[in-house]
Design a protein that fits this description.
This protein has a single domain, classed as TIM Barrel (Alpha-Beta Barrel). It contains 10 helices and 8 strands. The protein is globular. The relative contact order is 0.16. It is α/β, with parallel strands linked by helices. The structure holds SN-glycerol-1-phosphate. SN-glycerol-1-phosphate binds next to strand 8 and helix 9.
Length: 246
Amino acid sequence: MNTRVYSTILQNTLVGKKMLAVLIDPDKCSDAHLQTLLPLLKVHTPDFIFVGGSQLKISFSALIQTFKTGLHIPVVLFPGDVSQFSPNADALLFLSLISGRNAEYLISQHVNAAIPIHNSGLEVIPTGYMLIDGGAKSAVEYISNTHPIPRDKNDIALATALAGEMLGMKAIYLEAGSGAQLPVSVDMIQYVKAQLSIPLIVGGGIKNSSQLQAAYIAGADLVVIGNVLETEPERIESFVNAKEIF
Ligand code: 1GP
């Protein structure tokens, strides 16, 4: 199986080179927004484009192609459910919601998606997805019908992440939820990273470059930014600059 995207993530993690992903929710990416965002991303280019959303209604294969040909960086699917699949992408985060106890998002959606994904040849990155309380009820919490890990329970977060690693997952994603009031705390990132051997992805509620740098310093290997660029796309410059100093 192709492992190109994961090899890049792993190598960068091993040498401490921080990574940035811009999350595109196709439902919120109008043509007008795309025309503003794409030229900015060509100048201030992140490492990856993630594509996904919790309630995606539109087809997004053409959008993926636009990012691939426009930016020449990997496009990675970050699916909210089994319907969010496109062979046009470079890889897919095969997310299991390991912070929750809903079999639907732990294994059931995966069984339904497995054969089409396998047949497509798309690179698959098994990822332990952990929802952390971000100060308000998130779409993931509502849709998945699971409880987030309380934001001060570092020991539960660590135990969950280690269980994911021991189950063979290739990355852990600490998620405060899109548009979260509060990002995952630096204490929690530090606590989990100290014991984890696989790459650590962090996202949700990061609104400025100070928060981005704090996440990197605490131990995030890859940070995902979404919401803030939907309203203020020009902020990408400060995020990319903040990443480059590491
Ligand atoms: C959401 O982690 C991502 O799944 C990004 O969150 O949209 O809050 O930046 P934001």
